[in-house]
Design a protein that fits this description.
The chain is mostly helical. It contains 15 helices and nine strands. It starts with a helix and ends with a helix.
Length: 392
């Protein structure tokens, strides 16, 4: 389907929806109900944490543990882990998604030209001419510029459209129902820390309760232990169940961080303007990949404060043989734009510094085209499967 056809369809739908929404309180009520229901998974997680707090602190620590020093140590380590866990979860849930800057939005005049274009090649030329001043190096399967027909903008590298949020999101990993938010450039570090501290929390609770299982189920005991033992028993099995799920999910995302790859990119290999498909195209080495998400300050790596490197729009990529690419493409390859290198953090820092000054923007002169939204939707709508299945 052509860009003009999709844009025309979008324009008609927008006009129809805007005309009908004015007198549609019913539609507004339905939308409000949908927004409310999206918070149910978050409320469920909060309720489980609140119950686990009661079971661990009250039933286990105060009613079961007898030693004063042991109580103090149990409560000290428990609350330390709990604070980091809740802090990371809060930042993951309430951090705003990374939105595409305004300069990537195709102006109305260019959209009208797309609508009047006589062929898809002409549409591709229009988009390519607009995108040549933008710092993008990825393309679609047919080597055209990635264009979002819903948001009417050129997609930055690693950005995708989220059908749940209804916007294009910078470095979209997936939309997670358990946090009611997109996991993306702005909160990816918080999401990793949330998974890590949640795993530590579950393991700590499980190992703390298993030591008292025999004592809890013995015939002798203080008053109240018989009722409380069921809370502690369920606490052990629930924490163990969540720990098993979190091990695989946390391990998978650590693996992705070390490869500098998102969940979407693991399912669909990014295609580069120079070099073609390359799953490791953004990988700069494990340490550089880690620092791109967690920052350069080692003291803040495991603290849920924002330290990620870059602006979410442009990313350094692996070095390639420029002479070979120049011969293959018939033109001079860029000498320093978007080149990351594998020689440590200096290349990465230099790239982000120059990218912010707009001095290393990659100019693309080859004819490209529109992004195929029908093809993207299979991967870019919402990737619930991995996260949701592991946490169910």
């Amino acid at each position: 389907m052509s860009v003009a056809g999709n844009y025309d369809h979008y324009h008609r739908n927008s006009s129809h929806s805007s005309g009908s929404s004015g007198g549609g309180p019913r539609a507004e009520r339905c939308a409000c109900c949908v927004r409310t229901m999206k918070w149910f998974p978050v409320l469920f997680i909060v309720a489980v944490i609140a119950w686990s707090y009661y079971a661990f602190v009250v039933q286990l620590t105060f009613f079961t543990v007898t030693g004063v020093l042991q109580r103090i140590l149990f409560l000290l380590f428990y609350h330390l882990i709990l604070v980091m866990f809740l802090w990371s979860y809060y930042r993951t849930v309430f951090t705003d998604i990374g939105r595409v800057p305004a300069r990537f939005r195709v102006p109305r005049s260019e959209l009208d030209r797309l609508l009047r274009a006589q062929s898809e090649d002409e549409q591709k030329q229009i988009l390519e001419a607009f995108a040549k001043q933008l710092p993008i190096v990825t393309r679609t399967l047919n080597a055209s510029v990635r264009f979002c027909e819903k948001c009417r903008l050129i997609k930055p590298d690693r950005a995708h459209h989220c059908s749940v949020c209804g916007v294009c999101v910078l470095k979209l990993d997936h939309h997670c129902p358990w946090v009611n938010n997109c996991i993306n450039f702005t909160n990816y570090k918080f999401f990793i820390l949330f998974l890590g501290y949640a795993l530590v929390y579950c393991l700590y609770v499980a190992f703390s309760t298993v030591m008292y299982m025999e004592l809890i189920w013995s015939a002798s005991g203080r008053e109240g232990k018989i009722d409380g033992r069921f809370h502690i028993l369920f606490l052990f099995f629930v924490s163990l169940m969540f720990a098993i799920s979190l091990v695989s999910l946390f391990g998978y995302h650590v693996y992705l961080v070390l490869l500098n790859r998102t969940t979407l990119e693991s399912f669909r290999t990014p295609i580069f303007r120079y070099g073609g498909p390359d799953k490791n195209g953004f990988s700069l080495g494990k340490m550089n990949n880690f620092q791109e998400v967690f920052g350069d300050n080692r003291k803040l790596w495991f603290v849920p404060v924002y330290t990620s490197v870059g602006d979410g729009v442009s990313y350094p990529v692996r070095c390639y043989d420029e002479d070979a690419e120049s011969l293959l493409s018939g033109e001079l390859a860029p000498s320093n734009g978007h080149m990351g290198g594998r020689n440590g953090g200096q290349h990465r820092n230099n790239h982000y510094h120059h990218a912010n000054n707009r001095s290393t923007i990659l100019h693309v002169n080859e004819e490209g085209g529109d992004d195929d939204d029908d093809e993207d939707n299979e991967y870019e709508t919402t990737v619930f499967s991995h996260s949701a299945n592991l946490l169910h």
